[in-house]
Design brief:
single chain; alpha/beta; 5-stranded mixed β-sheet; 33 helices; 14 strands; elongated; disordered N terminus
C-alpha cells in the first residue's frame, strides 16, 4: 500500500461504556497531539448516561456514535471502523477510554507503518500512576492453551527501547492501516470482552500479517478503568470462556484431542466438587467458571447470560463479616484457659515436668488451629532443632514415656493443621478455591496405595504395628503437602516461612563446625546429655554423636549437629543448600549478596562435614540447577572459587593429600562396592515379589522390627519397590519430578522475590533428593520430609 506522506487521515476510535469522564480525558489527550489529519470518534456502547450532550458542549469536534445496547468492545470498535472507512480514513487506531496518549504517539506509529505497511502495530503502554513502569510491550503466547503474557510487565521503560515483532498486542491500543483492516476483517464480536485482540493478531499471523511493538509511541493506561463497573464474576467468566474459545479455534489434530480430554477432566472434577462441596457451589468464582465452561461447550457467544453474585452470596472482593461469637474462638479461648489451669494445678501437685509438657502441647495445638499459618511457620522453625530439644527434654525429665510421646509432636501438629485445612475447604469463610493439579492426584494415588498395603501383610506376614510404622515412614509425610496447598498465604507469610529456617540452620551449622573441629569434646557433651539412651529409646542402636570415617589413612569426624545423626544432617543440608542457593542467586544488592553468600557457604561446609559422599555428589546438581534457572553463572563461578580456596586451606590444615581425594572418588572403594552389591540384591528381591514384601520390611523400620530378616537397599526408590512393588517407586519418582517442574514453573511466572526464592529453593532441594535417593533412604527423616513437602505445597 502507498502511504500519503503529507497528512494521511487517521481515525482514532474510543469505545465508551458508562465512563464519560474517562472518555473525555482520553479524547482531550488525543486532540492535544495536534495531528492535522485526525478524525476522533467516540462509540458509546449503550451507556446509562448518554454522553452526546457533554461532548457537544466540551469536545464538539468529536464524532459520537451511539449504540442502543452494550454489544461488547469488539462490536464498538467495528462500528467505529465502519464509519471511519466510509469517511475515507487511511489508518485506524483503537484505544481504551482509560488511556491517555503522549504528544508524538501518532507520528511514531505512522513512521512505523511506513516500515511495516501491512502490520498490526502496538505502542509502548505504561501505567498512568507510574509512567516509568511498563504495563505492556507486546505479548507472548505459549502452549496449546495459548497462554498469554504481557512482555515487559512491571519493568522500567528503558528496558524495552527496541522495536520487535511480537505474537500479539493488546486491544488497549491497536493501530492498523485501512487496507490491513479490510484484509483481516473485523474483530470477532463473539468474544464480547477480552482476548478478541489476541484472536485478531493470531488470525493476522496466519494470513502473513505481522504484529510489531513500537517503543517510540507511548500510551498511558489506567489499568481496568474501562471495566471497573463490570461485576467481578462476569470479568472472570469472560476470561475463562474466551480462553477455551481461542485455544480450540487455533489448535488442530493431536493438540485439540489432548485439550478435549483436559476439558472433559476439568468438567468431571468440577461436577464432583459441585455435588460434594456446598461451599464450592456458593463461590462466585466457581459459579462463573461453570457458566463459562457450559457456554463454551454450547457454543454461546456474546455477553454473559447469568446474574452477578446476588444478595446473600459472597462477592469476589468482600469478606464475610462475623455477626456472632465464633465457635472456633470460644474453643481456642477455652482451651488456652484450660491449659493455664493445668499449669497451675501441676505446680501445686508437684508434677511440673509432665503436666507442663502436656499444657505446652495443648497450647501449641490450639494455637495452630487458630492461626494455621503461624503453626506452619513454627513447624519450619522448629525442624532444625527439634531432635536436640527432645534430647534436652529427655535428659531433664529422666523418663522415656513422655519423650516417646514428644517424638510424635510433628504428627500431632501436622494432624491439627490438616484438619484445619480440611475444615476451611468444607466450610470456607472466603471464596478462594484452588484448582486440582496433577501432582495432587499423583500424591493421593501414592498415599492410597500405601493405605492398601496397611491391610496387606505381604509374604512375611508382618504385624499391623510394623505396617503402621512403615506407612508412617513411607508416605505420612506427604500429607504435609496438602497442608501447604490448603493454607491461605499472603506475601509476608512466604517471607516468614523462609526466614524461619535461618536461625535454627545457623545453630546447626555452628554446632557442626564445632563437632568437626573438636569431636572428642562434642562426644563428651552429648554423652552427658544421654544421647545413647535417647537413641536406644527410639529403637535404634546406640552410637556416638560424632562417628568417624577412614579415607586414605585419615579418620574424618562426621558431624551430626543438632540432628543427632550424620545422615540425618546430610539430608537436612540438601534442603538447606537448595534454599540458601536460591537466596544467594536471587539477591540483588551487594549487602544481601554478602550475607546470603556467607549463609550458603556455611550450609555447604556443614554438608561436607557429614562426610556423606552421596550428599556431596548431590551438592553439584543442586548449585548448578539453581544457577541455570536463576541465570546466575557469575555468582556460581564466584561461589566455586571461594569453595575451592576454603577447601584447599582446609585440606592443607588437616594434612590431607591427593591420595585422600583419589580415595573419595575411587569406584573400587568399599562403600561403593557395598552399594553395588545391595543394588543387585534389591533387584533380585523385587523380582521375587513383584507386588512387594509389605510395609515395614525394608529401611530403618525393617531393621528395628525384623532385625536380620529386613531388606537392606540403601536406595529410597528400591526400598519402595521392595515393599510395594515397582509401581510405588515409579509413582513417587514421578511425583518428585513433577513437583520440581511445577516449582520451576511458578518461579518463572511469579514476580514476588520471596515466592520466587521459595519456589527455586524447593525445586533445587528436590533435585538434590532425586540424586540422594539413589544412594540412601533420603526421605526416612520424617520431620524433614514433612517440612520439605509443606514448603512444596
Amino acid at each position: 500500500m502507498m502511504i500519503d506522506t503529507i497528512e494521511p487521515r487517521l481515525a482514532v476510535i474510543v469505545v465508551n461504556w458508562n465512563g464519560t469522564g474517562r472518555s473525555l480525558a482520553c479524547l482531550r489527550s488525543i486532540i492535544a497531539t495536534g495531528y492535522p489529519g485526525l478524525v476522533p470518534i467516540l462509540v458509546d456502547n449503550g451507556s446509562a448516561d448518554d454522553p452526546r450532550s457533554r461532548f457537544e458542549t466540551e469536545l464538539p469536534d468529536v464524532t459520537v456514535l451511539r449504540l442502543d445496547e452494550n454489544l461488547g468492545y469488539a462490536a464498538g470498535c467495528n462500528a467505529g471502523a465502519r464509519w471511519a472507512l466510509d469517511a475515507g480514513a487511511h489508518f485506524l487506531c483503537f484505544l481504551n477510554n482509560d488511556t491517555t496518549v503522549e504528544a508524538d504517539v501518532f507520528r511514531e506509529l505512522l513512521a512505523a507503518a511506513r516500515r511495516h505497511p501491512d502490520a498490526i502495530l502496538g505502542p509502548k503502554i505504561v501505567y498512568s500512576r507510574d509512567p516509568a513502569m511498563v504495563w505492556s510491550a507486546g505479548g507472548e503466547l505459549s502452549g496449546p492453551w495459548m497462554r498469554n503474557r504481557h512482555i515487559g510487565r512491571d519493568q522500567p521503560v528503558s528496558a524495552h527501547g527496541s522495536s520487535q515483532r511480537v505474537a500479539w498486542t493488546t486491544g488497549c491500543a491497536l493501530f492498523v492501516s485501512s487496507a490491513t483492516y479490510r484484509r483481516l476483517g473485523p474483530l470477532d464480536e463473539g468474544y464480547f470482552l477480552f482476548l478478541e485482540d489476541i484472536e485478531w493478531c493470531v488470525r493476522g499471523n496466519r494470513r502473513g500479517i505481522e504484529t510489531w511493538y513500537v517503543p517510540g509511541a507511548v500510551v498511558r493506561h489506567e489499568v481496568s478503568g474501562s471495566t471497573g463497573s463490570l461485576p467481578a464474576d462476569h470479568v472472570f467468566y469472560y476470561g475463562c470462556r474466551n480462553t477455551y474459545r481461542l485455544a480450540f479455534s487455533q489448535q488442530l489434530g493431536r493438540d485439540r484431542l489432548w485439550m478435549s480430554g483436559e476439558l472433559a477432566r476439568t468438567m468431571a472434577v468440577m461436577a464432583l466438587r459441585w455435588v460434594l462441596l456446598p461451599a464450592f457451589r456458593r463461590s462466585p468464582f466457581q459459579r462463573a467458571r461453570a457458566h463459562a465452561l457450559l457456554d463454551f461447550v454450547r457454543g454461546r457467544r456474546g455477553p454473559a447470560r447469568f446474574s452477578p453474585a446476588g444478595r446473600g452470596e459472597p462477592s469476589l472482593t468482600a469478606a464475610r463479616s462475623a455477626s456472632r461469637l465464633s465457635p472456633r474462638l470460644v474453643m481456642v479461648g477455652g482451651g488456652l484457659i484450660a491449659a493455664s489451669l493445668l499449669v497451675v494445678v501441676s505446680s501445686v501437685a508437684g508434677l511440673n515436668i509432665l503436666l507442663l509438657a502436656l499444657a505446652l502441647m495443648t497450647v501449641t495445638g490450639l494455637a495452630a488451629w487458630r492461626w494455621p499459618v503461624a503453626g506452619a511457620v513454627f513447624f519450619v522453625a522448629f525442624t532444625p532443632v527439634n531432635r536436640f530439644v527432645l534430647l534436652v527434654f529427655f535428659h531433664s525429665a529422666g523418663g522415656g514415656t513422655l519423650t516417646r510421646f514428644g517424638l510424635l509432636w510433628k504428627e500431632g501438629l501436622l494432624a491439627v493443621l490438616l484438619v484445619r485445612v480440611l475444615t476451611d475447604v468444607l466450610f470456607p469463610t472466603r471464596t478462594t478455591v484452588r484448582r486440582i493439579r496433577y501432582l495432587d492426584l499423583l500424591l493421593l494415588l501414592f498415599i492410597l496405595m500405601n493405605a492398601v498395603y496397611l491391610v496387606y501383610p505381604g509374604p512375611q506376614e508382618t504385624d499391623l504395628f510394623t505396617r503402621i510404622q512403615g506407612f508412617r515412614t513411607d508416605s505420612s509425610f506427604l500429607l504435609a503437602y496438602f497442608v501447604g496447598r490448603g493454607l491461605h498465604l499472603e506475601r509476608r507469610h512466604v517471607r516468614w516461612l523462609l526466614v524461619a529456617l535461618i536461625p535454627g540452620s545457623l545453630c546447626v551449622g555452628a554446632v557442626a563446625v564445632w563437632q568437626f573441629l573438636a569431636p572428642n569434646q562434642a562426644n563428651l557433651v552429648f554423652s552427658q546429655l544421654g544421647l545413647q539412651d535417647f537413641i536406644t529409646l527410639q529403637g535404634a542402636a546406640a552410637a556416638d554423636a560424632i562417628r568417624s570415617r577412614g579415607i586414605g589413612g585419615l579418620d574424618l569426624p562426621r558431624a551430626s549437629s543438632l540432628q543427632l545423626g550424620d545422615l540425618a544432617l546430610a539430608f537436612f543440608q540438601i534442603v538447606l543448600v537448595g534454599v540458601a542457593a536460591a537466596l544467594f542467586y536471587e539477591s540483588r544488592s551487594g549487602r544481601r549478596r554478602g550475607w546470603t553468600g556467607a549463609f550458603l557457604l556455611l550450609m555447604i561446609v556443614t554438608l561436607l562435614f557429614t562426610v556423606t559422599r552421596s550428599a556431596v555428589i548431590a551438592l553439584g546438581p543442586i548449585l548448578v540447577f539453581a544457577a541455570i534457572f536463576a541465570r546466575s553463572a557469575v555468582k556460581l563461578l564466584a561461589l566455586v572459587a571461594v569453595m575451592a580456596a576454603v577447601g584447599l586451606a582446609a585440606f592443607t590444615w588437616y594434612g590431607a593429600d591427593a591420595t585422600m581425594l583419589q580415595k573419595l572418588i575411587d569406584p573400587s572403594e568399599g562403600s561403593t562396592q557395598s552399594h553395588l552389591v545391595l543394588f543387585d540384591r534389591s533387584i533380585d528381591t523385587i523380582a521375587a515379589e513383584p507386588l512387594g514384601h509389605g510395609l515395614g520390611t525394608a529401611g530403618e523400620i525393617g531393621h528395628r522390627q525384623l532385625g536380620d530378616r529386613a531388606i537392606n537397599n540403601e536406595n529410597w526408590y528400591l526400598q519402595l519397590a521392595s515393599e510395594m512393588g515397582p509401581l510405588a517407586a515409579l509413582l513417587y519418582l514421578a511425583a518428585v519430578v513433577l513437583m520440581v517442574m511445577q516449582c520451576i514453573g511458578q518461579y518463572r511466572r511469579v514476580k514476588d522475590p520471596w515466592l520466587r526464592t521459595l519456589a527455586l529453593g524447593v525445586a533445587s532441594g528436590g533435585v538434590g533428593f532425586l540424586v540422594e535417593g539413589n544412594f540412601l533412604h533420603a526421605w526416612d527423616n520424617t520431620v524433614l520430609s514433612m517440612m520439605f513437602w509443606l514448603l512444596a505445597g
